[in-house]
Description:
The chain is an alpha/beta fold. Helix content is 37%, strand content 16%. It contains 15 helices and 16 strands. It has helices at residues 2-7, 10-17, 25-28, 45-48, 53-60, 65-76, 81-103, 118-133, 142-153, 189-197, 221-225, 228-233, 307-311, 358-373, 400-420, and strands spanning 35-37, 134-136, 168-175, 201-203, 209-217, 246-252, 258-261, 263-265, 267-268, 289-290, 300-302, 320-323, 326-329, 337-339, 348-351, 379-384. The chain has a seven-stranded mixed beta sheet, with helices on both faces. A hairpin with a 5-residue loop joins strand 4 (201-203) and strand 5 (209-217). Helix 6 (65-76) packs parallel to helix 8 (118-133), helix 7 runs parallel beside helix 9 and helix 8 packs antiparallel against helix 9 (142-153). The two termini are 29 Å apart. Residues 2-17 and 19-33 have low confidence and may be disordered.
Amino acid sequence: MMLLRRAVSAAALVATVLPLAVASPAQAADGSSACRASASVPLDAEQARLSDARTTALVERAGLGEFVRRFPAALCAARGPAEADRLVADWGEALWQASVRRAQGQRPGGDLAPGDDRPLYWARLGMTAALARWQPEFAADRAALRARFEDASRGLTDNAFRSAPGVRRVFISGFDPFGLDAEIRRANPSGSAALQLNGRRVTLADGSPAEIRAVVLPVRYADFDAGMVERAFAPRMAAGPASADVITTVSQGYPGIFTLEDWAGRARSADPYPDNVRALSGGTREHPVTAPGLGPGPEFIRTTLPADAVTGSVQTPYPVLLNSDVTEIPAGGTTPVDRTDGPTPGSRAVAGGGGGYLSNEVAYRSNRLRLELAPQLPGGHLHTPVLTGLPADPGQLTGPEFERAERAITAEVRAVLEHAAVLR
């Protein structure tokens, strides 16, 4: 396992989804609000990948192109900061809901497989690029508006459990695609699973009902530093009907297997591997660092998901293994040591089973918060297999093998949750 870790008609459709409060292009064009868009505003490294025509094709082939095209005019209709704040939230929530409905076969449009997570990712980036270039006539807190839009378009808002008493509540997170400089067509099966499972009623292994709610998180250190994980998970740990009964973070992991990660480590240590804006964490295997703003907590946090129940029941089409690997600096030592049986007392974390990147950090952050707010809550992290099957021709965006693998991974994520969420 340690070696693996190292090796390793559109306008009409939009009108049915967008809230009535969202301004249409016609409203923006009537001269009621002056507005400019500046093409000279620099985009970040993630947004700059939109110059590749395949990113636009992914959005269009999913029937989400109208979101990107109409958003600039909607921004121009905003008459002040408060209205702009409401507008970006409405459009973000509409994009999220449209993507969820599409992933679950409830919103027709385009010829991509419904569960493909890439259209949401690239549509969101196209809209944030429009927000960056927007030149309103009033003072606007662009960073705050971006954060508002990001939260809304990722499922962090207006995505509460709606189940009746007696229905188990399962909350999960997935991730955006990453590693796009090497292959811009990449998807992320954890994000696909989140879209396909959000809001679903499922039957658990013991026959009881459950509802799943999900968010899709960015692969960006800055968003984690700004508390996005805590914003996503804290409401699910407060007492009351919004609280979850089980939490599970999910990310893409190793080829050909699922792993339940036994331990999450406190440190970042993935450099020189960058995030999606090509930022580095500042931490390496030899010199791990703690993320800015991370609250107090132990060096390692152990999963409280029922690993035996999951690994003993779910093994097809991919095996599900418990991964107890960690890398630590032992107490009194200075050199990292790889272990296959968990950490030793007093050691400093270098990497959890999920490494020293954001998949490990989302597990640590969510479970550190769980220990603080709801220690009785089962929680942990699930790594999916690497999603393979993209056609060899770089101009082909999808193919049968890719789509079969995506469906199979989501089905097995669901099976894992159906065993992990049983009341014990």
